[in-house]
Fold this sequence. Notes:
Layout: H1 9-18, H2 23-34, E1 39-42, H3 49-59, E2 64-68, H4 75-79, E3 80-85, E4 90-95, E5 102-106, H5 113-116, H6 120-125, E6 127-130, E7 133-136, E8 142-147, H7 160-163, E9 168-170, H8 177-185, H9 199-210, H10 216-229, H11 240-256, H12 264-279, H13 283-295
Parallel strand pairs: 1-8, 1-9, 2-5, 5-8
Antiparallel strand pairs: 3-4, 6-7
Amino acid sequence: MNQIHPQLAPICHYLEQQLLGKPKAVRLALSCLLASGHLLIEDLPGAGKTSLAKWLAAGFGLSFQRIQFTSDLLPADIIGVSVYEPPTQQFIFHPGPIFNHLVLADELNRASPRTQSALLEAMEEQQVSTDGQSYPLDAPFFVIATQNPREQLGTFDLPESQLDRFAMRLSIGFPDLNSELAMLKRSNQAGESLVGMSIEALTQLQQAVEQVHCSDALLDYLLRLIHCSRALEGANPLSPRCSLTLLACAKAWAYLHHQQHVSPEDVQAVFSAVSAHRLGRGDSGEAYAKQILTDVDPYNDLS
């Protein structure tokens, strides 16, 4: 893979040393954060989902909170609740765990659709509303949600409106034999320390990502990918919101790899992670994304 931006190299190196053999997953997660997006991870237990969220929070100085989603979890358990205070004879709002910079929604699809929907406003508007009042969330605000495979018992499918709030979906997967052997050998050794950054530095990086140059020809290629999905039989058509998200994530991938402009390869690197969960359920979404990348030539004019 290409050279990493010097300012992000220490964090990227640390994460790649923790999730051995998974450099693409690490860099996609970093790109998602740099693009100010939310991340959905679908994997079996023990693959490192929670650890990745904690390391990202520590690396950028973000406050972190894990919410375990269960079938009996209520929206108020996430957002917070207003409690009557006799001394003041007023209802005082007590913020819930959503009021953190990075929130890990663990096993999101084990909660009911009603509880899942409690995240919608927070992810889209960066605020929550309750009892007729709106409360802003701290910036930056980043949700990492984990999802169990659909075939497991006790899961609820995430609705399309929820899935569309996630800029990317990825699967970390289990390490290969050599990577897992290296992990076992170092399990009793002291690991390297994480050299973190500040929230202000992260905000500056996100602003720099927005300034990465994107040519008209590249925008034509990106739009042809989007429009191809709308003519693909069986696939869910990609929306204008996905167009904006794809551009933001491609810029972030380019910036992460120390590039000043977006190339077709940058779009291709993030396309499946951005689009597959929107195109279709399960493996079908991945198949549609691969077909679109195969069918659309980056060097043809927009038709």
